[in-house]
Structures are given as structure tokens and as C-alpha cells.
Amino acid sequence: MDLLKPILTEKTSAAVKLHNVYVFLVNIRHNKSDIKKIIENRYSVSVKNVRIIVCAPKRFKSKKIKKALVEFKKGQSIDFSNLDCYHNIQ
Length: 90
Fold this sequence. Notes:
By secondary structure, the protein is α+β, with helices and mostly antiparallel strands. Helix content is 24%, strand content 29%. One of its GO terms (cellular component) is ribonucleoprotein complex.
């Protein structure tokens, strides 16, 4: 089950600070319950809410992109500073 890559930008960092919402780039086939289970298992956190955004392909790209906005319960977070799983995801 390869699932997701965290999207780390200034905008997503603000969402984390204000609303405790993390943004992940996910496989187009996964649904909300799949995403919730995988994140809870991978990062050992409790997920409060999952919202999905399906973005249309850009001009020369042929695939749709799916993003998951994952809200954690109060007091829980993920520290991405040590992880090697992200590099300039655009």
C-alpha cells in the first residue's frame, strides 16, 4: 500500500499551525477510510477528519492529482524534519 507523500510548503505549514491539518499527495485510487487507516498506522496518530481534493491535470500533464487534508486530534502532530520521504513535491 504505497500511499502518500507529505506536501510541505509555506501554505501547508500555516494550515498545520492554525488548524492542525496536514496535506498529503495520495494515490488517486485511495478513499478517505483508506487514507485514515494508513496515516494512523504509519505515523501513530489519531485522525479526526479527512478531506479530499482532486485537482485537474495541468496543461502538459495527463494525470489527475489527489490531495488529502488530514486533521489530527488535539495535541498530536508529525515531525517531518527527520523524514527522507519528501523532496520538493510539486
